[in-house]
Amino acid sequence: MSTPEPPPADFQAGQVFRLERTITDEMIRSAVELTGDRGRWHVDPDFARASGFQGCFAPGLLTASLPAEFGGQIDYLATRMVFEFAAPVYAGDRLVAEIRVKTFEPASRRLTASFAVRSSTGQVVLRGQTAGFASGPARKETAPGRAGTDAYRKACAHDRAGEEAEAIPWYEEALELGLGARDRAGAMLGLGSSLRNVGRHEDSVRVLRAAVDEFPDQPALRAFLALSLESAGRPKEALHAALGVVLELTELDGYAPALEGYRHALLTESAG
Asked: What pLDDT was estimated at residue 10?
């Protein structure tokens, strides 16, 4: 197991940190016991091979412990983690995790990052995103982030009254001061929507894209992003975002793969 160099007191968007680990049979056995994940893929090699795998493979949380290990090294308090398990991990696999900083707010110490874990062949076995707070000299009133509550309430009051222009600076102040995760997502949605309604379409897209990156499991953000993309004159990107919400929330009677293919083609055509 390797240890990255000590991280800086502050972080910058785009910074990448790496760590490595070789998975062993003992690690897999320990992970099975610690997590209680005794699925037969992890403990019965004959069953695993009959299911099309090379043999027993690691519980997903063992692979996910690589980005978690980095978080422990910087005393990172995660409030959100999203995982996508892309491929099985076997004993003997050498894994390399890359954690990329997406945003960092020095006042609140709030940090968002994406991560990818690859095998020694370069295959991605895990990818995901996280949001939380990095240890450091945060102001007491903004860690974990409630100082912006009053400003957020004022923003919402203006927004409900149809006074989007007046709501915008209050949303911005609330986000700067700090909010809990639920209010932060609401403030980013409100700010993005208000910016769109006053004609600041590209600013709206920027805010809502950041919100989707930070809160990928909230489809309302992607729906409002679709509206802003359409207003900004980017209809294919708008349809791509809207179809993503449809695919997530709707039963499609077996048509989901075809619809996902058409959705992917929208951005491929745009890039061409």
From this structure: 75
